[in-house]
Please model this.
Amino acid sequence: MKKILLTSLFLSLFKFSFCQTKIWDYPIKPTSPEWKSLSTVEKIKRLQIPDDIKSRIPTKDLVEICMDYPYLLSFTASNNPVEGLSIIIGGFNGFEELSNRPDFFSNIFEFYKSLKILELNNVNDVIERIGLHYLVCATEIFLSDSKVLNTQNREVKISTLKLLFKRYKEEKALQDESFGYLGKMTSIFAINTYTGSLGHKIANLDAEEQGAYDAFTRRMAYISPSVLDKILDSSEKFINDL
Model:
């Protein structure tokens, strides 16, 4: 938790917003004059959506509000991104409201599709490039959540899987250092989650690799780049046969 809060100080330097919703906006932001004078607890309290408003926000707008949560990208400071993201979203009532919406998946999927990775070639601001990459990572973890996955039939899972794989290839093609290991890991974690839900099994792993793979599948625990490549190669063959 300490590590997450420390890195949130760096992430709070982001001077841009990914979302343009006007339905409701955060009363304070990292660019607000009072931001630095407030404790983390005070900031989180003031960032909550009023109860009389959150239920009336359309799901599409609620997704954008949640993805613009000032502390969202702090999940990258955790030793485990899935656990880090869980801590972050547990502190914001917008995510609780969103997770209970029956159209949560369709709207988070559309948001993911709207992220224009290839347009990063035209972005010179390093912080903005890193921020967008981290936002892609967070969205892929959301798409991999069992509650989200269980709302999809086979056809929708295949469609989502193919988009995940396409997005991974787009990020890899950028050869952008800000994509890095975290970007590769979250993409392959999401891809592996969907191939597994469709019945795919990763073969040709030795005992040590299998143990690491099992931990990676359960909670995205650290796994060596060589095993990530094996997962990706096996998944690609599976996807091509669909």
Summary: The two ends are 41 Å apart (CA to CA).
